[in-house]
Amino acid sequence: AQSVTQLDSQVPVFEEAPVELRCNYSSSVSVYLFWYVQYPNQGLQLLLKYLSGSTLVESINGFEAEFNKSQTSFHLRKPSVHISDTAEYFCAVKNFNKFYFGSGTKLNVKP
Amino acid sequence: DAGVTQSPTHLIKTRGQQVTLRCSPKSGHDTVSWYQQALGQGPQFIFQYYEEEERQRGNFPDRFSGHQFPNYSSELNVNALLLGDSALYLCASSLLTSGGTGELFFGEGSRLTVL
Fold this sequence. Notes:
heterodimer; A: mainly beta; B: mainly beta; 7-stranded mixed β-sheet; 11 strands
């Protein structure tokens, strides 16, 4: 079975500062990679995904993630965060039509 | 275009009782997956339904069962509730024929509290 590790359970950061949320996965086969965001009392929403091609993928709200096959990582970054980015972020791996989620990273953006 | 809808949003049960949670997938989707999200944890895969059959199952006991109807909607049943079953139960839909690249679309969840 796959495992997804999100090393940081909480990341506090000031508004307009850069942030990186780390994600590593265990796999020796090709996988599809996803980042989901969960706002309080809501379900998960897709932020971005890597399926193939360019290893750098971007979301519409300024987040980006880079697939690194040798490091088996898919870290999420944003150069300048906003208060509205405060949420919990989940990294996920899809393999054989089954999703495996990390334990989540709570991003707390402070003014 | 309606997204994934779940009901009820909140419910409280006592130990030993049974619960049924319901889910309607996003329009055009044919596959429904159920996840359990305990407090402070990531979603844990319970099972997946496609063509009215359970196709994959996670590491959950037989007390957890499900059903998919011809209109693709789905139910999750949990029997003999335990305190540890308290969690947010998430339904997610997808399109199986998307070549394996399709993402999950989640509902807002049903929060179950077992007393």
